[in-house]
Amino acid sequence: MTTLSPDEAKRAAAAEAIKLVRPGMKLGLGTGSTARHFVDLLGGLVAAGLDVLCVPTSEETRAQAAALGVALTTIDAEPELDLTVDGADEFDDSLRLVKGGGGALLREKIVATASKTMVVIADVSKHVEIMGKFPLPVEVTRFGLEATRRLIRARAEEAGCAGEIVLRDKGPGQPFITDNGNFILDCHFGALPRPEQLAQDLSAIPGVVEHGLFIGLAKAVICAGPGGIEIFG
Ligand code: 5RP
């Protein structure tokens, strides 16, 4: 058996997902290194004549897809999509996801929610038994940062988790700014015993724009590892 490197596994998952694409589909394009493989493969099909219309979930993905000649539109012009293919920072057996490691979680959630089907592509390192191995990203407004951080901490404690809440930076003293002009707080909570409660409670905080818990959105996860492709869901 050939052992795939993590990057080869990401490409293998993307290659499996590309089989779901049909001519005329409206697609959501995810963000991150795994989604990048999907967009790259899609670009190859488009060059060979495939006709699809796509909504990217970040400026980074927009630039990649545009450079490959993929026809692009916006979620306002096409508010109903057939299929979104995106990566994840982690997923569990119930197809609950943590996303936002690349900072695109808000657009990713809007696009996934607007899609009839969301399929996640991942390498096996993303599969977890208990959610929370990856720090939970939360997109917040710049106004009221400390008040919002305090409320996140309080709601997290009520949902059975605690830990450092760190403002994401893109360099020393330079906060990371999302495509929507917001900050990201990375919540190092460790295990999330009640992700549904946490998701609901985080959404109720005024300064929280969106959080990286994607629950009930993914229809399947295509996961590639040393043993080949495994499909969850
Ligand atoms: C970006 C995301 C990505 O899908 C997630 O971070 C996974 O990235 P990668 O495929 O590079 O591991 O949610 O906001």
UniProtKB/TrEMBL annotation:
The gene is rpiA. NCBIfam families: PRK00702.1 (NF001924), rpiA (TIGR00021). Substrate binds at residues 31-34, 86-89, 99-102, 126. Belongs to the ribose 5-phosphate isomerase family. The active site is at 108 (proton acceptor). Pathway: Carbohydrate degradation; pentose phosphate pathway; D-ribose 5-phosphate from D-ribulose 5-phosphate (non-oxidative stage): step 1/1. It catalyses: aldehydo-D-ribose 5-phosphate = D-ribulose 5-phosphate. Its EC number is 5.3.1.6. It holds the Pfam family Rib_5-P_isom_A. Coiled coil: none annotated. HAMAP family: Rib_5P_isom_A. It comes from Methylocella silvestris (strain DSM 15510 / CIP 108128 / LMG 27833 / NCIMB 13906 / BL2). GO terms for biological process: pentose-phosphate shunt, non-oxidative branch. Keywords: Isomerase. It comes from the Bacteria. GO terms for molecular function: ribose-5-phosphate isomerase activity. Catalyzes the reversible conversion of ribose-5-phosphate to ribulose 5-phosphate. Homodimer. InterPro entries: NagB/RpiA_transferase-like, Ribose-5P_isomerase, Ribose5P_isomerase_typA_subgr, Ribose5P_isomerase_type_A. This is Ribose-5-phosphate isomerase A.
